[in-house]
Amino acid sequence: MIWIVSGFVLWLLIAYSRQQDRIQAIEAELVKVRNTFRKLADERKAAQEMAETAPTGILLADPPQQAPDAPTAGGPVEAPSQPATAAEPVIETPARRPSSPAPGPGFPDRIAAIVKAWFTEGNVPVKVGVVVTFFGITALLRYAYVNGYFSFPIEYRLLLVATAALAALAFGWRERDRNPSFALSLQGGAIGTLMLVVFSAFRQFELLPAGLSLALIVVLVVGAAALAVLQNAVWIALLGFLGGYLAPVLITTGSGNHAALFGYYALLNGAVFAIAWMKSWRALNLTGFAFTFGVGTLWGARYYRPELFSSVEPFLILFFLFYVVIGLLYVLRQSEHRRPWVDGTLVFGTPLLAFPLQARLLEDNRLALAFSAFAVSLVYCGMLFAIHRRRNERLLVESYAALALIFSTLAVPLAFSSVVTSSVWALEGVGVAWLGLRQRRTSAVVAGLLLQALAAIAYAVFVLDARAAAGGAAQPIVNPFYFGAALIALSGFLLSLLYGRLGESRRMAAALFVWAGIWWFGAALGDFGRAQAGIGIWPFGMLYLAFTMAAAGALRSRLAWDAMGKLAAFCMLSAPMAVLWAAEYYGAPLLTPAWAYWMVFAASALYVLWQSARDDGAAAPEMRLMHLIGLWTAAFALSLQWHYQLDTVWRLAQGWYASAVYLPLALMTVALWRRPALAAWPVQAHFAGYRSAWFTPAFAVLALAWLIGLFLEGSAKPVLYVPLLNPLELSLVAVACLLALYARQAGGAWNRLLRLWPYAGLAFVTLATLRAVHHLDHQPWSAAILASGITQTCLTIVWSLLGVAGLIIGSQRGDRRQWIGGGILMLAVLAKLILIDRTYMGNMPGIVSFMAVGLLLVAVGYFAPQPPRSAEADAGEAG
């Protein structure tokens, strides 16, 4: 324990030396500033002298000119030259840009600077000597006690040390005027030594009773306080009070007499209060504050019982009032900080530590705790009234106003239920924030936002309360759970609107809007369990989304509130997920009664889009997004519904319901392309501005679906499978034609897609051939189908026909590129004959393959000779 006390004393010595070094650093800075001003004055004077002594012929005002009335007879006569005038040189100094303040040093750098300054500045020998001597005495006492090197009793040894310390204290007092730094250091070391002697006599050597030891500590504390006030030396007072606050902890008999403990601390705090009335010593205030509430908290956690309330409550009230006033006195009397300024540790820390202790004392009496919170609010209202006219204490006035608001707010949940509390706090937060934004008072705005957070916490307490949950209503919407969450959401929306109209931060307005949206939809999610017992979760969710979307659209139009358009778009963004949910909930998204709820949802969406088209000169981005998501949702729902109808209801084969993947999307794309006035209503006037946002992804999805459809088995049951005239291949041809027609009309980059048509056609014909072999020759629809001779013969003949067609058409049109393409395909067929089909030469399919290809090549040589090379053809090849 002695080493703990020694460490505290060392900390105090370092703190004092840091204060002295800070004063010396400030004086050095003042000297630097004075020298800088002198240097600037000298430079300005030199610049003025240079300007005055500059040569006159350097800068001419105007060049010499000929006189207008000079005689011309007898030759030109030179006009008298004008006297040259010298312009004063302008000495420009580069404008200094205001430099941003350099970042402050980190915590390790500050510690290193403090240690360096302590050992290099001020009266270093005295500081080091006092610390070394102090620890030397500590070590000497312990060493002597353990080893028994001295023959005289320990009482005399302690008395000798105390006498030496008193002598040092007297000598330090004598030298206070002649050598103040030395004197203060010596006095502090002497007081610390005397306290150490008392602690050692009681704790280690058991020479003094607890009462006498405590009395001696009080004498030393009073003496240290007197010396500190007389010499304006805060660190001496800090040292004395530190020992005083530690005394009950170190000098204890275990009796647990809390009245004596708190009475002793009341005397110490009274002394701190008296010193605060004369001196603005923040370190002393914080030391008393920390020990009073720290020791009180530890005692309460270990020893408090309800029957001790009457003897503990008065001390808690006294300590609270002490440090409320001490915090006020320090702000009013200090001159270190520029006004307005607040000591946040005392002003805010005092109630935030004292009130939890009060809650511990009144943990079984909520109403009494509510009155306590109200009483604290009245205390701060009184403080507010006492200083509200002091203009330079604006920040302190706002702090007391905030504390009064906080504790008056805190009284509400203590007296009422949690759901009422959350509602009152949410509305109160809106009002306070509104006043703060109107008056541009940041503290009021922050208070309003904090009330929103507190309302959320109160609601969470209400939900988690088992008793409140047991008494909840069974109907969705009409219950306190939904009411509390929805009220918090509405308050958040109002705050977002106020911040957007009166505030200066769009980010804060957006953050509040997101906060409100989370609570709004969270309230609905909380009612899903109640909706399950009624109309069902999916219908409840669709009606809630439809109502939210319609309300958001109306508010967007009436209040010019763009954020509500984003909320409506968010509701529409959930529609594709609602389609999947409906398919799982009912089996298909548009079955009865799902289609009725979809009608309500669609009506809300069309209303919002109609309002947007009427109010906006051009469709807003969120409304464009909402329209596009609505179109995709409709295509998705129709695809799933058509697939359900073909597969589950009519039980048709794969070739039929595979078309459901892209048929509704293709039909909607055609409608938006050819009849946008009808298909894009009610925003048809603006659809042309973002039509590519539909067509580009729509055709990408169709192209992907087309590629997937190529590899499907494509059964046409219950009808007979006919190559190229079955549902799958007819739909593939239709989609390919749609893509080609749109690409041809759109032009530009879309024309590049037309270059892919030969490859797409070859792939389609190849897979169609394999499908025909599968259905007509009953070959397996897998990679094993390629091992069949019939398959290879069919592929050879089909590819040869395509190649021959390309050669003939290219020759007749004079299209060398098409002719070359047909030739390449025929070369591929020849390679196939050599590598694959020759293995079937022993059977009829292989023979047919070779003969067919040979005859076709002969026909090509007759009907489709190579077209002549021309400049246009060469240019085409080059392109």
Counting DSSP H or I runs of 4 or more residues, the number of helices is 36
Poorly predicted tracts of residues: 1-17, 55-102, 871-879
Mean pLDDT across residues: 75
Helix content: over 70%
Strand percent estimate: under 5%
Q: Which descriptor suits the 3D outline?
A: elongated
Biggest sheet record: none
- Radius of gyration over alpha carbons? 47 Å
How does the helix and strand content classify structurally? mainly alpha
Distance between the termini: 94 Å
Account of the protein in words:
Helix 32 (757-777) runs antiparallel to helix 33. It is built from 36 helices and no strands. By secondary structure, it is mainly alpha-helical.
Summarize the structure.
This protein has 879 residues and is mostly helical.
Write the layout of secondary structure elements.
Blueprint: H1 2-52, H2 107-120, H3 124-147, H4 154-174, H5 180-204, H6 210-231, H7 234-250, H8 258-278, H9 282-303, H10 309-333, H11 344-361, H12 366-387, H13 394-415, H14 418-439, H15 442-464, H16 466-470, H17 480-502, H18 506-526, H19 528-532, H20 537-559, H21 562-573, H22 575-586, H23 594-615, H24 621-649, H25 654-657, H26 663-674, H27 676-679, H28 684-687, H29 692-710, H30 727-746, H31 751-754, H32 757-777, H33 789-813, H34 816-835, H35 844-863, H36 871-878
